[in-house]
Amino acid sequence: MSEEKNFKDSYVLCIGGMNVDKKVQLLENLVLETSNPVVSSLSAGGVSRNIAENLGRLGLPVKMLSVAGNDESFTWLEKETEGIIDFSLVDRLKGKTTSNYTAILDLQGDMCLALADMSICEEMTPDWLISHDEAVKQASLVIADLNLPQETLQALIQLTGLEKIPLAIIPVSGPKMKRIPDDLQGVTWIVVNADESQTRYGEHTLAELAALWQKDGVENIVITKGTKCGVFADATGVVKTFTPIKAEQVCDVTGAGDSFSSGVLYGALKKASLEESIGYGLTNSYYTVQAIETVRKDLNAKSFEKEYQQLKERGLS
Length: 317
Fold this sequence. Notes:
By secondary structure, this protein is of the alpha/beta class. It has one domain (7-17, 47-66, 121-313): Ribokinase (UDP-N-acetylmuramoyl-L-alanine:D-glutamate ligase), CATH 3.40.1190.20. The chain is 33% helix and 23% strand. The protein has helices spanning 47-57, 72-80, 126-130, 133-137, 150-163, 194-201, 206-215, 256-269, 274-288, 301-313; strands at residues 12-15, 19-26, 38-45, 62-65, 67-69, 91-93, 99-105, 111-117, 141-145, 167-170, 189-193, 220-225, 228-233, 239-242. Helix 8 (256-269) packs antiparallel against helix 9.
């Protein structure tokens, strides 16, 4: 982490996706080309927004930089996390619709289909980013997802590099991996899954994938593989493994990845070791998949530290 800024005197800036999530839970096995009985619910979503809410609930000052429609959906998003996320930097665009996402979950709570209307994200151009450059410069950590166009992400890497501001990139999906520039010099963190990494580099072992990310310039790499063993590496190039603790009951996996990324970056902001930061990530995802919400409403720093210690006693590694 940069020594120039302390997060207690500044804020975390999350840039990218911010949308209304609709979760549709099947009550029976899916049958195509006919009506299926379901129950549905609305929640606030978007990768960067989810991370912002996780960190905000953990007591960190967080600002969201994004675009939204001048509509009721954004008003609803604001109210959902009032006092947790600062939305003052969000630009409301006339004639545009706030992003929305629909996930269809099977009987086990696993995603079987997802639909996303994220077209408004294309309005986050390099010029738009530069219009908010002062907000970027004042941040202690910038977190960006791949809802940003590639040109904007490249401009962000250059800006944070010049200002020596730590930058974390959180991918969204395999198809959007093409938005990551070739040169990643200046990127402090990437938290990515194995499939996303293989979309960029092809078939390799996790250790080889970590080395390839480092070759492209990323300082700290965390690669997950669902409930299986993952890997992490820092600037020394040493690759270590970690194993998630399997949750007793999975309610919904929608927020698992974002909660993991949030925990890792929370640890980094606390200046924990990389290994400890991984532990925070595993703890947050472990409890999040057992909750109905994408971001746990009962999440707070005190209880989170207790959860982390409890899982350490159970062999968290």
